[in-house]
Design brief:
Blueprint: H1 7-20, H2 25-29, H3 35-42, H4 50-60, H5 64-69, H6 75-92, H7 95-112, H8 115-132, H9 135-149, H10 154-170, H11 174-190, H12 196-213, H13 216-229, H14 236-252, H15 256-273, H16 276-292, H17 296-312, H18 316-332, H19 336-346, H20 356-372, H21 376-393, H22 396-412, H23 416-430
Domain HTH cro/C1-type: 14-67
Organism: Streptomyces dengpaensis
Protein name: Transcriptional regulator
Length: 447
């Protein structure tokens, strides 16, 4: 067995178990071996063959695996079953409870040297940290999970890479998130490791940072590849996530009916799987869709449903992000005071390192509300803070729009030169090519 312990460790284990059972070396050895062989083995001076260890294990009444590795029989299987239970807790319950389960499983896996189970527990802890909004911890957990897997084939490491990329994306590091997605896709496709699950996970994940960077052409291409890969994937949760992400590119292209149908498919799969956070995200995206299509009443209903579900799950960062989009709908419905109160209530939970895009969105909307109230000083302050956040994140499309808002404000208050500077900045971002500035797009999968 490749991962069995060294001869000295096994020798001490054989001696301990033999003594506990009050057996002599002769009784343990018979009939196939000699007492001298058992003595030499217990002293750690010989590396026992597998047949010898199986004979000794049978005489001692223990499983071969337990004698060779020190692990209780079926431990790895039991840990994998409990990892599935923790995954279910994360899907249907609270992330903090799931994190406790994963931490206990990690400790057990560490104690018995079960590398694959260590990596899986760390991956789960990373997902828990994503949900609670602890992005630094999420990045650390995903990195450690990938490190534990060592030389495992790249498709097996993709979930950890995807987790790292999402954590960086939520932290406002859009370019680095795209780099992680693109470089991994490129390696998979160029080296012929065309694992459909891994590819779908990556193409689905890269859509959001592409959209926020204004790289709509690449987002549409990623969505096209994801849709083509979906029939080859048997994991329903992956397919559901694909439908939810692809809907965003459809909304941008004005394909509202198709986007709504895609979200309906995702929501139905998540209901069947009882994955509540992702189901809440479907309500969130549907609210966004209705808002883009001008159906503000339905948008408000969907976003309030998403907010309530995420709040119940204690998914603090996601709850705050939904609140920003809900505030935009409330403002457009003439409920500006309620929108402003909602934004001020969540701004403390958002920062340049935690939900930067939505933090900028909150300041942008507060600036518009301040302008409506003729408080130009407050409006300018919010616009400038939003610009700083968007420039740091590299969100080109949103930044161009904000420069227009700021330029209009400056022009109305008589600061023409400053307004021209703001417009020039916005034009520079609007005319930037729709790529991530990371070079050519990744190699394409064979579809």
């Amino acid at each position: 067995m490749a991962d069995r312990d060294d001869p000295e460790t096994i020798g001490r284990r054989v001696q301990r178990l033999r003594t506990e059972r009050a057996l002599t070396q002769k009784q343990l050895a018979e009939p196939a071996y000699t007492p001298a062989y058992i003595s030499t083995l217990e002293a750690g001076r010989v590396r026992a063959s597998e047949p010898a260890l199986r004979h000794i294990a049978e005489r001692l009444g223990v499983a071969y695996e337990e004698l060779a590795t020190g692990r209780p029989a079926h431990l790895a299987t039991d840990l994998r079953l409990r990892l599935t239970d923790a995954q279910r807790t994360l899907a249907t319950g609270e992330a903090e409870v799931a994190a406790e389960q994963y931490a206990g499983l990690l400790a057990e896996a560490d104690a018995h040297g079960l590398v694959a189970e260590q990596a899986a527990a760390l991956l789960g802890l990373g997902e828990c940290a994503l949900e609670t909004g602890d992005l630094a911890a999420a990045q650390q957990r995903f990195e450690e999970s990938e490190r534990r897997m060592g030389d495992a084939p790249l498709p097996q490491r993709v979930p950890a890479v995807r987790g790292r990329a999402v954590a960086h994306y939520l932290a406002g590091e859009l370019r680095y998130a795209c780099y992680l997605f693109e470089s991994t896709l490129d390696e998979l496709n160029r080296t012929g490791l065309h694992d459909p699950d891994a590819l779908l996970l990556l193409y689905t994940g890269v859509i959001a940072p592409y959209m926020d960077m204004g790289a709509h052409a690449r987002a549409a291409q990623a969505a096209e590849f994801a849709l083509a890969l979906a029939p080859q994937v048997g994991e329903p949760a992956l397919v559901a996530r694909m439908h939810r992400s692809v809907a965003r590119t459809m909304i941008a292209e004005g394909r509202i009916t198709e986007a709504d149908a895609s979200l309906a498919k995702a929501a139905e799969l998540y209901r069947q799987l009882q994955i509540r956070t992702e189901l809440a995200n479907c309500h969130w995206m549907r609210g966004y869709l209705y808002a883009q299509n001008g159906d503000l009443m339905r948008a408000e209903g969907e976003l309030r449903e998403a907010q309530a579900m995420l709040s119940a799950k204690r998914a603090a960062l996601y709850t705050s992000q939904v609140a920003v989009e809900l505030a935009d709908v409330l403002h457009r419905r003439g409920k500006s005071d309620e929108a402003a109160a909602l934004l001020h209530g969540v701004l403390g939970d958002l920062s340049p390192e935690r939900g930067a895009i939505h933090s900028a969105g909150a300041h942008r909307l507060l600036g518009i509300i301040a302008e409506d109230a003729r408080d130009t000083e407050a409006a300018e302050e919010h616009y400038v803070r939003a610009m700083s956040l968007l420039e740091r994140a590299g969100a080109a499309g949103d930044l161009a729009d904000l420069c227009r808002l700021l330029g209009d404000l400056l022009r109305r208050t008589g600061r023409v030169e400053a307004a021209l500077d703001a417009y020039r900045t916005g034009l520079g971002h609007r005319t930037a090519p729709g790529t991530t500035t990371l070079g050519p797009a990744p190699a394409q999968p064979p579809l």
